[in-house]
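pipeline: protein-struct stage 2 | run 1193 | Heat shock protein Hsp20
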Amino acid sequence: MTTLDFSPLFRSMIGFDRLIDSLETAYRTEPGGYPPYNVEVQDENSYRITLAVAGFTDSELDIEAKENMLTVSGQRKATEAEGNFLYRGIANRGFERKFQLADYVKVVDASLENGLLHIDLVREVPDMMKPRRIEIRGGEQGPAIEDASDRQEAAKAA
């Protein structure tokens, strides 16, 4: 198996170590097919993951968000009456599917309807992390860095 060398990116990208690690992990990860899923962008900061989990009840499914990892797992309960099948094509196995979440993305809702598990996510960037304007001073003037709260106060005063 060949590997990708991301070391040239380290020369111009500072602080993106986690991104490079994620790229390397994604390259090594083999695609899994069960259960099938969709990732939908609803708007700029809202996402929805939909997994096809037919045959699972909500008590057999588990959703866990820890740090920047969302883990969805399902374990079918053993049924006492297995029956005498001529053909068995419906999957009766458990699963675990992991999704790497970006910073400030959190799970806000999960629902199970018609065999589809919907997980709604929202990215909420704190005010202190939003872009701020940096003025270039020519002489002795006020502060060089203006953040969102300073702009709001200036707008209220005007």
